[in-house]
Amino acid sequence: MKKFLVVLSLMLFAVTLTAQVRTGNIYGKITDTEGNPLPGVSVTLRGPQMAPLTTVTTEMGIYRFVSIPPGSSYEVSAELTGFKKESRTGIIVNVGSNSEINLTMAVGTLEEQVTVVAQTPVVDTKKTTVGAMVDKEAMQSLPSARDPWVVMQMAPAIMLDRENVGGNESGQQSSFFTKGDTANNGYTGSNNLWAVDGIDITDPAAQGGSALYYDFDMFEELNITTGGAADVTIQTGGIALNMVTRRGGNKMSLAGRFYLTDGFFQSTNLTQALKDQGVAATNKIQQIKDFGFNAGGPILKDKLWWWGAYGVQDIFVYTIYQTKDQSLLNNYNFKLNAQLLPNNRFEALVTSGAKEKLGRNASVAAPEGDHQRGKYYWGSPIIKLQDEHVFGNNLYLSLKYSFNDAGFGWVPMVDEVWVTTAPRRVIFKRLKDARGLSTGEVLARIRTQLSVRRQVECATRVIDTDVSFENLRARVGRLWRKASQRA
Fold first, then answer.
1. pTM strictly above 0.90
2. CATH code 1.20.210.10 for 21-120
């Protein structure tokens, strides 16, 4: 019994974190023409991607609809015996917002109706965060690359480490930071947070990085919060990027895309003046293909909906060293929404992003770079199950489960691959002593790397490092001399 009470208390008093919200709220007050609150009014909310919801105003005329998916065409209507029916259409709901819709009802019969047809601008008087909200229409009209890092450039006070021109940098994540963030061992942006549909997917092995890459057409809305150090609902002082994916509705939908960026259309900025200064070449796009499709619709109208998408980004560019840098990004998305009971909503999400990159970490010393691959063939899986129930105007319960198993590794693109191995206990001790990592941090780092078996499969030679330094140095010296003779 004590356990039940503790769990119930946590559910009642837990505060939802801004960075992990996937919905918004609609609330308001209903009065008569003299400003008196009207209790017992039947208020109905209708939207294109959900079944109608109904609630009743309190003694003070207050009503609430919580956890509403983002959209721009909601309708609120109010009915009470002895009064004209009042409706408001074109209501906008954004992620993490509170849309206040107050209605005034005039005396009359229910057959008489007053409808206000106009988009209601969102002025959220309860919101104190700083940032930006970008909806689907704005994202699709961006005259630049198609990834979340480019969208973040639209938000105030965010600095990125690169300019992504036409998608030439979309094969690798950008580093970014904002005011209030601090450097961690010289790395800025380590306090950033990534969330998809209300679950944290920040990469545990790359602080502040995303666990996967994205199909740009999967997003319904992106919400960017900066200055987390001044906001008690943000866990860190960094940037919180909250991404909400699309969902199916009562109408069938099908869409596809194909974007091509080719070197044929690209100019060059390598002038004779630069050549005279010793600049031999510049980085350039060879070809970038971005294609995919998405579809969704009802399984049972007003009860059960589905949505799915598949997207590919095939990125082929040349580095400033004139070596190939190729990235292949595959994304798979599926979402199921159910509203079998009027006040109960269920959501299941499965998304995965697979990345293969040739030429990572290219430099003067190693111009060929490395070959990067993920842990699994189908990419990094992310799964979410969530059930919500609304009890009147004052109680809302949510149960959520999520699973995230992201990770990657890379091997050199060279003639020989030497892999060093050691017993697990030795690896733990070295990481703890040399890096100051905790046991949990060591486990998180190991889980994101290729398994020892996979590394050994890729190796030309396997070197056991659980020996004295003198023995290890002598063995590596012998192997190096043999390799030099073959070269």
1. no
2. no
